[in-house]
Amino acid sequence: MKARRSLSQNFLIDPNLQRKVVDALEVEPADTVLEVGPGHGELSAHLVGRVARLVLVEKDDHLAEELAVRWFARDDVEVVHGDALEGDLAGLVASPYRVLSNLPYGITTPLLFRFLALAPAPVRIVVTVQKEVGERIVAGPGSRDYGSLSVGVQTRAEARIAFPVSRNAFRPIPDVESVTVILDPDPGRISALPEPGLRRLTRAAFGWRRKQMQKILRSAPGLALGRERAEALCRSLGLDPRSRPEQVAPELFVALARRLEETEFGGVDTDA
């Protein structure tokens, strides 16, 4: 079982954990499952015949060919040879669908947000990620793990860690422990996000995470509200201007970003 280091390949070989990961999807017979990076089909094999359609997106040339040969006789399995960071993933599936991936460590964040940006949104996303990344995804305000990744995910989906996955369950054995994370996207929440203002705000806030929010709003590039407007904005939302980013809940970041789009608080002024 050869793995390509350039693609961050680690194959989940423990059958019991394979079943647990697949069971976390809670599939229905009418579902489509989009699996990204299926490898040798370790998880896919537990889904064939259980869902209406299984779409496997694999970048590795040899693995894509292996999967196509393995399931060439099945009309309910489609193998797509391509890069999941490119192309139209949503165009490969029809609702209701669910997403499954053992996320490569090197591209975890961009792939995760690619999944969360799919429209229409999947019913559920189940990913296996490095333990530290999983803890950051689900961290709440006040936690040392809370940051822009936490806000970015939690403003789009309900997130929770399902169970740990030992490094010894993979071949080759990685240097880190992993966890399986369940994400339940909220289409209404996603459609109402003030993008790209939210990304700009969280990047500024957690780039200066030791500073107070009023200082960040006053001075961060792209914000620069000035002292009076920064403090007024915080107080209008019931946020203590002296709060630091790790104390601000995801919904407050959304509210801040939305207010920043309004004429009253938009633009740059010079009283900083």
Could you give a quick summary of the protein structure above?
With about 270 residues, the chain is of the alpha/beta class. The protein contains 10 helices and 9 strands.
Offer a few descriptive terms.
Helicase, Ruva Protein, domain 3; alpha/beta; 10 helices; single chain; 18% strand; disordered N terminus; Rossmann fold; seven-stranded mixed sheet; two-stranded antiparallel ribbon; 272 residues; 9 strands
Notes on the protein architecture:
The chain has 272 residues and is an alpha/beta fold. It has two domains: 5-191, Rossmann fold (3-Layer(aba) Sandwich); 197-260, Helicase, Ruva Protein, domain 3, CATH 1.10.8. The protein has helices at residues 15-23, 61-70, 108-116, 131-138, 148-154, 187-191, 197-207, 213-219, 227-236, 250-260, and strands at residues 11-12, 32-36, 53-58, 77-81, 97-102, 124-130, 157-165, 170-171, 178-185. The chain has a seven-stranded mixed beta sheet, sandwiched between helices. A two-stranded antiparallel ribbon has the order 1-8. Strand 5 (97-102), helix 3 and strand 6 form a beta-alpha-beta unit. It is elongated, with a radius of gyration of 21 Å.
